[in-house]
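Chapter review: from sequence to fold.
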Amino acid sequence: MSAFGDFDNSQFEEFAKHVNAQVSGGQLKNEVKKSVKNVGETYKRNAEVRTPVKTGDLRRSWQLIGPIFSGADISIELRNSKNYASFVENGHRQKPGRYVPEIGKRIKASWVPGQHFLQKATKQTSNQIPQLITPVMDDILRRLME
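The token string follows.
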């Protein structure tokens, strides 16, 4: 007997076994993976809707990779395979006076401002994450606490 007395930790051990059984079964990981994939798909849709369209190539070139598990981290990656996507997003320099046959005009401005479509999609998706993740996490926690 210690100076603080005895305590029964059988309920805690029972709870730990229950949590371990839930986690080791893999079902929770699959649900988290599915939820993160849903966030990624939402992010991709938000980016596609905001991507400017001339030919449609830039909009069609979005790719979602993941979810990727690395230790305790879960990540997704959204990328655009077109090499000019960053120039449309962030802006770019150009040489005034140069003739561009595709548009049939000479360039006047030395800077083309970015359209920040991915930045806007990121902000919108960040605002949607609580609605996308919270129900799944509440369900997982409820099952763990049963």
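Two observations follow directly from the output. Helices lie at 10-24, 27-50, 57-60, 85-90, 117-145. Residues 62 and 80 are 5 Å apart (CA to CA).
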